[in-house]
Structure formats: structure tokens, C-alpha cells
Amino acid sequence: MQGRDAAPAAFLFEYGSAVSAWDVFKARGFHQQVTEEADLEARSRTGPLTGYIGFDPTADSLHAGHLIPLMALKHFQLEGHRPIALLGAGTAMIGDPTGKNDMRKLLTVEQLDRNALALRDQIGRLLDFTHPDPARRAILANNADWLRGLQYLEFLREIGPHFSVNRMLTFETFRMRMETGLSFIEFNYPLLQSYDFLELYRRFGCALQMGGDDQWANIISGVDLVRRVERAQVFGWTFPLLTTASGAKMGKTEKGALWLDASKSSPYEYYQYWVNVEDPDVPRFLRLFTLLPLGEIDELAKLQGADIRKAKEVLAYEATRLIHGEQEAGRARLGARALFGGTGDLADVPTTSLVAARLADGLPLAELMTEIGLAKSRSEVRRLIQQGGITVNDEKVESPEFTLGQGNLANGAILLRVGKKKYHRIVVNG
Prior knowledge:
By secondary structure, the protein is of the alpha/beta class. It has helices at residues 9-12, 21-28, 37-44, 67-78, 109-123, 144-147, 152-159, 165-168, 172-180, 184-187, 189-204, 216-230, 267-275, 282-289, 294-301, 308-324, 326-340, 357-360, 365-372, 378-386; strands at residues 33-34, 50-55, 82-87, 139-142, 208-212, 235-239, 252-253, 256-257, 351-355, 363-364, 390-392, 395-396, 403-404, 413-418, 422-429. It has 3 domains: 4-239, HUPs (Rossmann fold); 252-345, Tyrosyl-Transfer RNA Synthetase; 351-429, Structural Genomics Hypothetical 15.5 Kd Protein In mrcA-pckA Intergenic Region, Chain A, CATH 3.10.290. It is built from 20 helices and 15 strands.
């Protein structure tokens, strides 16, 4: 991965000579709360700072909800500091209760370790783990290295006295869960997350923990623990919890989460998500999810009406390029233009090959759509048809019993559409 020296000059100097990571965070929208901000600013002027964000491997891929912390670590490194991406294969054995109404399903150690390996490669697309300067070289750590071997009684004696049960019960997460039931295992999560901060301070001199604003209570608990045990000043910083302009949870698609793994959400699907965001979200998402200079973003933000599609194309291309690379981003853009602009190559649209013999006796549309993942079930296909939401070669499907045949072929292919913007191309062979 490229480091700061490869960043565009306009990005490096967009705030003038007084640029700092905190200027960048605030200008781009990565700021909600911070502990002892003046001291943090002063500390960062004395040399590179080491800061971390945790990612519990509860799945084998990160998703769009992880992009704000990932991009924050990226900017942190670009501004000359050392980021730590902490894989939580230890804490995930308990499960973070934050934002959950019920206890998380506990995964096996083997599942967590497999997931952690998968996340490592995704994080490596954004962070530079080979930077020539050790003070700026990103670190990938795993809290399983120190949490799984903890001696319970020793841990309680060292860490337990620094936590007040009365204070922990004031945490928003715990207050919410007291109504539905809070297990003792979940009650331990803040202690373990705080211990992570202490361990990272001891191992790497880590002086900053960052995370979403729902982690504020956990973060300040870690700040307090390091202060008490090591007599050291460390800091916490949180990001806003992001929703779209309409109030929907960011990163949700018809198929569920928008994954960073190409096998779960294809580069084309990833591109389509960003090119179809709501108009008011475009300037904000350009600041958060691309590395474009702020001056260029301000110019794109001025586009109105039909011209805002140009800004959305830039957002979609840049966001996709960061995660999937330039080649896949370019292919996704060509595919989108082929469908919506009449230019480009339809071969770049998501495509499935089909043996011609399957069309001979008529292939139920509901069967094909569930097979290729355009719908979750045949009942969903029927519902979409009743709502007028499915077309075949731009012809609306009227009957839930619709079958595909040779007569539906156009130049050896069939173009399916769900809703206004979800396409899939069927290429028939043999």
C-alpha cells in the first residue's frame, strides 16, 4: 500500500502548514467527542502518535459500517502517525453488547481465527504495513494473543479494583440491556476492551483509542485504566454514528450488508451502492469515503440537478477503487454506464452463464432469480412482480408464473432488472 508520500500534493497541503490529523478528522467529519483535546494536540506535535481501533471478527468480511474507522486509520497514517488495527479474536469470544438487544451468538475459537485471517487482507488494502519508517508503519495486532491466556484471578486482582459497578451501570449500553437481560459474560466486555488499551500502551506505546461514538463509555474506561495503572496520559476520540440523509442505516442494501469481500458484494454491487446514494449525502460521503482533496470535493458539491450524477460517479469510482482496486472500479463504472448512459461494455454488468437447454421447456423466472441471488425466495419474486418491480429486457413482467424461453433472447442474452437500478445479465451458451 502507498504511504503518505504518495498522496496528492493538494491533499497534503489543503490546510496549509498547520495541517494535523485532527484538522483532517474535523474537516472530513471524523469527529464527535475527544478527551483532553488541547493535550492531545500538544502531544501529537512532539512526534508521531500511535493510535488504535478494534475490529471484532464476528464475520469473515468487514462491511460498509467499518469504513469510517478504516478510513480514519488511513488518514491517521497519511498524516504521519502509526495506526494499529486490532483484531478482536479475544474480545469476540464474549461479544460486544453495544447496540444489541440480545446477547450475540458466540462463535467457536476456530471460526473467530478463520475470520481474523480474512479481515487481515481487507485491512491491508487501506493501511501500509511496510512503510520504511517504523514510527509510521501500520501494525496488525490480535488481542487473542494476550486475552486467551489470562489467568482469571490475576486479571481480577489487577484490573477489577479500577472499575466501579455503579458507574458501569450508568453506561447507555447496559442501561438499555437491563430491561431485556444482560449476561455476566457481556458485563465483562468493557474490562477486556480497557485491558486491550493497557496492553497496547505497554507493547507499542499506544496513546490513543478511536471508535464510533457508541464506544465512548468503553473508550474512556480504557483511558482511565491506563492512567490508573501506568500513571500515563492517553486519549480517546470518537466518530459520529452515520446514517443516510433519510435516516436509514448506512451500508444496507436489498441483499443485506454491503460487504468489502468481493465474493459477498461484487465490485459492481459495491459501485452501484455508492452511485445510487441520496443526493444530500454526496458531499459528506466524498469527504468520508474518498481521499480526494477537499477543494475538489467542494467543487463537486456545487453540482445540482442532473449534474449531481457526475459527483456520484466520482464517489462510486473512488470508493470502489480504494477497496477493490483501479481495474475493478473501472469495470464497474463501464458496466454502470452501459446500462444507464448507453455507453460502455455490457460485459462488465454482473453476468451468469446459462445452458441453452434449460430454456427449451421454459425456465421459471422465480427459479432463476433465486438461483443467481437476485431474490431470496420464490415468494419474494412473486411479491416483486405484483409490485411491478421486475423487467425482462425492459419489458415489465406481469405474471408470477412467468417462464423464460428462447424467445426472450436478445443477441444471445437476457437482461433482468429488479427495481430501478439492480441489473443482472444472463448469457446463454450451447
